[in-house]
Specification:
Elements (H helix, E strand, L loop, with lengths): L5 E8 L7 H11 L3 E5 L10 H6 L2 E6 L7 E6 L4 E5 L12 E6 L2 E7 L9 H23 L3 E6 L23 H13 L2 E2 H5 L25 E5 L1 H4 L2 E6 L15 E6 L1
Parallel strand pairs: 1-2, 7-8
Antiparallel strand pairs: 1-12, 2-4, 3-4, 5-6, 6-7, 8-10, 9-10, 11-12
Helix pairs in contact: 3-4
């Protein structure tokens, strides 16, 4: 059970919020996170199940898209205060991959970084350009001095230790040197990888592919991350993955990851 003196911030690639709504509601009911960053909504903003989420005790800031992508920030008991919709740096980029809000005195950036497959190719190029824009925006957030969390599906396996078998995914965009280097650049700016901080010696997997029995074999990857600014990192008390959610009927191929900070 969550300590009421702590603020729990979670990230969850829901992989279709309307399809997975029973899973989402069950998880919210049991764990009661204070802030939730959702990715891959796969619905427009108006199609998002606002009332069902409100019945669960949450207000939502949603940036949807007709078929793919889509991000949302949920806050328990109070509406997120919108800061921005969309990642700065390219006004022509209309993909719904970033939303930012203030919740309980913390700046929350919810992101769904491009997958980049197949690579090489235009999708991989877009991934790298998007990552550069994220680096620039993240640097500005750090400069502000505010407590900030950048939470979401980064579609990057940071190191070979963060995957059950690097050999099986060696050609996948998630493991390529360029996005890995970009992720390390983020950390060098001063961000703390909450899950790595909590589990430095054994990775906490957050994703198990639907194919080839990845879930039963615990053949997972760590691609969902919560990065904390220095001011917020000093308040970190715990972090983890609600792994059991991945085993529910009709589950997403991701499990929710979370960090608790002193409120």
């Amino acid at each position: 059970m969550k300590d009421d003196s702590r603020l729990r911030i979670a990230t969850f690639n829901i992989n279709g919020v309307r399809t997975r709504l029973p899973v989402l509601k069950a998880w919210l009911d049991v764990t009661r996170p204070d802030v939730v960053c959702l990715q891959e909504l796969k619905c427009t903003t108006t199609q998002f199940p606002v009332e069902a989420v409100r019945e669960a005790g949450y207000e939502a800031l949603v940036v949807g898209e007709k078929r793919w992508n889509g991000v949302a920030i949920l806050a328990r008991g109070a509406a997120p205060l919108e800061i921005r919709r969309g990642l700065p740096g390219d006004p022509a980029d209309l993909q719904s991959r970033y939303v930012e809000a203030a919740v309980r005195g913390i700046v929350v950036g919810c992101l769904y970084l491009p997958n980049g497959n197949p690579q090489p190719g235009p999708k991989f190029d877009y991934k790298l350009v998007w990552f550069e824009r994220l680096l620039a925006h993240a640097a500005g957030l750090l400069k502000s001095g505010h407590p900030v969390v950048l939470a979401g599906d980064y579609n990057v396996v940071p190191t070979d230790a963060d995957i059950y078998s690097p050999k099986s995914w060696q050609n996948n965009a998630l493991l390529q040197p360029a996005p890995r280097a970009a992720y390390q650049k983020l950390l060098k700016q001063g961000w703390t990888d909450a899950l790595h901080e909590q589990f430095p010696d054994k990775p906490a997997f957050t994703f198990w592919d639907y194919f080839r029995n990845h879930w039963p074999r615990d053949a997972g990857l760590r691609i969902d991350h919560l990065l904390l600014s220095p001011k917020l990192a000093t308040r970190m008390k715990a972090a983890g993955v609600d792994k059991a959610v991945r085993g529910l009927e009709g589950a997403s191929d991701h499990a929710p990851a979370w960090v608790e900070v002193e409120d």
